[in-house]
Amino acid sequence: MSNMEPHLLPPRVLLFPLPCQGNVNSMLNLAQLLSLAGLHVTFLNSDHNHDRLVRYTDIQARFTCYPGFQFKTITDGLPVEHPRNGESFMEMCYALNSVTRPLFRDMLVSGQFGLVNCIIADGIMGYTIDVADEVGIPIFHFRSISACCFWACFSIPQMIEAGEIPIKGNEAMDVLIRSVPGMETFLRSRDLPSFCRSSDVSNPSLQLIMTETRQSPRARALILNTFEDLEGPILSQIRTQCPTTYTIGPLHAHRKTRLAKHATNTLQRSSNSSSLWEVDRSCMTWLDQQPLQSVVYISFGSLAVLTRDQLIEFWYGVVNSKKNFLWVRRLDSTPGNKEGESEDIPVELVEGTKERGYMVGWAPQEEVLAHKAVGGFLTHSGWNSTLESIVAGVPMVCWPYFFDQQLNSRFVSEVWKLGLDMKDLCDRTIVEQMLNDLMVERRQEFVKSTAEMARLSRKSVSEGGSSYSNLDRLIKDIRLISM
Ligand code: UDX
Q1: Which family, according to UniProt (predicted)?
Q2: What is the torsional sign of CA 19, 471, 123, 157?
Q3: Residue 421 Cα, ligand 1 centroid: separation in angstroms?
Q4: 409 within ligand 1 shell (Cβ under 6 A)
Q5: What is the Cα Rg of the chain in Å?
Q6: How many Å apart are CA 381 and CA 360, to the nearest integer?
Q7: 422 Cα to the center of ligand 1, angstroms
Q8: Is the peptide bond preceding residue 166 cis, with omega within 30 degrees of 0?
Q9: Biggest alpha carbon distance in the chain?
Q10: CB of residue 369 inside a 6 A radius of ligand 1
Q11: Ligand 1 contact via 122 beta carbon (within 6 Å)
C-alpha cells in the first residue's frame, strides 16, 4: 500500500471487458499499455474467465510488476456449467445486462474498487454509461471490433428506415446497402453483421446491439483497436458522431513496441499469454520443421461452433489442396464434442493428413502467425485474428462465423485486398480452390498487399505513428480528467 495522499497517486482506471477471449486479449493489452505509462489499473474479469486465466497462464506474474495493478471479478450472469461459445453469445449479453449490470453498480457505489478516476468499458455494454453517470465517474467506451463493424452497427436505424433491414429473402443477399455512409459501393446485405439477417427488426439481438452501440457518443471518448491507415475513411464517418475517437491499435503490436523500451527489466520477459484455453506449444517445434511459407494456419477463434458437415467439408478441402497445415481444433468447437469422444471422421481424411498436418486444441496464435513457415491463414475473421494476421503480413481466406466477422471478411477481400472471402459457402471444392489461389495462383499479389499493410501497421505503433501518438493523447486526457 502506498502512503501517498490519494490525490497524489496516479489516476486509477477501471477496465471492464466483455467476458470473451478476443475482448479480454485486447483489453489486457490496453491495461498493460496504461500500466507502462504509470497509471493504476483495476481489471474487472468475469469469475469464469479469471479462473481460466489463472489456470492456463501466468497472468498474475505478468501484472504484479506494475504498481497499483489489481484484478477484480464479477459474475457474467450465466450459471457455472453453462456453455460459453458462439451459440450462447447473445444469452451472455442479456445476462450481463440483467444480472451483472446491477452488481457492477453496487460494487462501484459501495467502494469495492476503491477510488476510481475513470472507467474504460467495452462499448457493447453501452449501459455502463448510465452506471458511470449515476456514480459521477467519467467513462470511455472501448470496442474490440473493427471501426467498419462499429459504424455498420451504428447505422442500423438508417438501414431500417431505408428498408434495407430486414433483408428481403435470399435473393436480396447480394443487393448493395446504400445507407451506411462510406460503404455504398461494396457492402452487400450478406456482409452485414449476422444478426441483421433476422426477418424481424424487433429481434432482441438486433435491438440490443443497435441500442448499445448508439450509446457510445455519450461516452467521453471512443477507443478503437485499429489504425488510421487501415480504416481512415470509416473513422472520418465515425467522428461525425463520436468526435473524440482514439485509434490505438493494433494493440498487441503496440504493447510490444512500448515494452521494448523497457528492455532492462522483467517486464519484457514476462509471458504475454492471456489464453482461456491451455496453449499447446508443440506446434512451434512442428512449424520449425516446415519449409518457408508452406503452412496454412487454420483457426476459427474462440467462439465459432462448426456443424459436423462443415467440419467434413473443411477436412476434404484442406486435404485435397495438398497444403501443409496447422489446425486449431478447440474442444468446444463442434456441438456435443467432449474430451475423448470420437468425431467419426472418415479414415481416408485422417490418413491423408498425417504427412502434412498438425492439430492442437489451442495455439500460441500471435507466435504462429509470425513464424516463417506460415504462408496463409484460414480464419473466421475475428477482429483480433485479422489484426494479428495483418501485422504478421499473412494473407487470409475468410470464413466468417458471426457478428462483426461478416464485415471484416468483406473489407479484407474487397477493400484492403488482403485475401479471399468464402462467406456463406462451405464446400470442399471451394475450400481447395481458395487455398490454392492464396498459396499458389494469386500468391504474388497477396504477398505484395499484405507486406505493405504490415509495414503501415508497424509504423502506426512506432514512435511518431498515429496509434502511438493517440495513446499518448489518451493517457494525457485521463490524467487531466483525474486531477
Ligand atoms: C469474436 C469476434 O469476432 C471479435 O471481433 C469480437 O470482438 C469478439 O468475438 P473471437 O472468436 O474470440 O472473437 O476472435 P478474435 O477476435 O479473432 O480473437 C481470438 C483471439 O484468440 C485472438 O487474439 C487469437 O490470437 C487468440 N487465439 C485463437 C489463440 O491465442 N490461440 C488459438 O488457438 C486461437
Answers
A1: Belongs to the UDP-glycosyltransferase family.
A2: negative
A3: 18
A4: no
A5: 22
A6: 19
A7: 19
A8: yes
A9: 70
A10: no
A11: no
Q: What residue type is assigned to position 429 of the chain?
A: T
Give residue 379 CA to ligand 1 midpoint distance, Å.
10
Neighbour order of strands in the sheet with 374-379 = 357-360, 324-328, 295-299, 374-379, 396-398, 419-421
Ligand 1: atom nearest CA of 25 is 23
Mark the ranges of the chain whose per-residue pLDDT is less than 70: 1-7, 263-271, 335-343
Q: Using a 6 Å cutoff on CB, does residue 382 contact ligand 1?
A: yes
Does ligand 1 come within 6 angstroms of the Cβ of 250? no
Strand order through the sheet with 118-122: 70-74, 40-46, 12-16, 118-122, 139-143, 222-224, 245-247
| Residue 26 CB–ligand 1 contact under 6 Å | no
Contacts of 139 (CB under 8 A, 6+ apart): 118, 119, 120, 121, 128, 129, 132, 133, 219, 220
Q: Tell me the CA distances in angstroms from 248 to 20, 74, 163, 473, 480, one per residue in order.
A: 20, 27, 35, 10, 19
Give the Cα-Cα-Cα angle 27, 140, 277 (nearest 5 degrees). 15
**Nearest atom (ligand 1) to Cα of 144:** 7
Q: Of 190, 124, 179, 176, give the one whose Cα is nearest residue 155.
A: 179
| Per-residue model confidence (pLDDT) at position 1 | 43
- In degrees and rounded to multiples of 5, residue 374 shows phi and psi of -85, 125
Half-sphere exposure of 46 (CA within 13 A, CB side): 25
- Compute the mean pLDDT over every residue in the chain, rounded to the nearest whole number: 93
- The amino acid at residue 107 is M
- d(CA 48, CA 293) in angstroms, rounded, equals 37
Instruction: Give the H or E element holding residue 375.
Output: strand 374-379
- CA–centroid distance, residue 433 to ligand 1 (Å): 25
Shortest CA distance to 379 belongs to which of 417, 424, 421, 343? 421
- Other CB atoms within a 10 A radius of the CB of residue 200 amount to 8
